[in-house]
Amino acid sequence: MPRSVLVIDNEPAVREILAAMLAADGMEVSVASHSDQALTLAQASRPDLVLLDVQLPGTDGWEILQHLRGTYPGLPVVMMSDQRHRGRAEREADGFIAKPYRRHDIVRAVRLALGGQGEG
Asked: What gap in Å lies between CA 111 and CA 114, rounded to an integer?
């Protein structure tokens, strides 16, 4: 059974690229551009993993992370942002992907967060 991933990023090009990349790796992918949409999709689809951009309009990624942690204990969340957020992401989330995103970094982070092999 394919694993499901919810990608939350306000940039349409980033959402499209990540969705295509993850789908090519055999994942079922949902995408959201803002917090309300993200939380609705998380409830409806119950993803196996969330890829979450830190910098979102309105409710930022940190607030969404806290909501997901409280509502869905055990749901892996990998934060995506520039290097200045790495430390906090490594403390509070299940992984971190630094911009600019590279395919092998994304695949490794997703597989590690899902409990699989990190290389590929």
From this structure: 5
Cβ-contact 79, 97 below 8 angstroms: yes
CA distance 55 to 88: 13
Mean per-residue pLDDT, 54-83:
94
Quick: pLDDT tens for 16-51: 999 999 999 899 999 999 999 999 999 999 999 999
- Partners of residue 79 on adjacent β-strands: 52, 96
> By the 8 A CB rule, do 8 and 19 touch?
no
In order of 7, 40, 58, 107, the CA distances from 19 in angstroms are: 7, 18, 23, 12
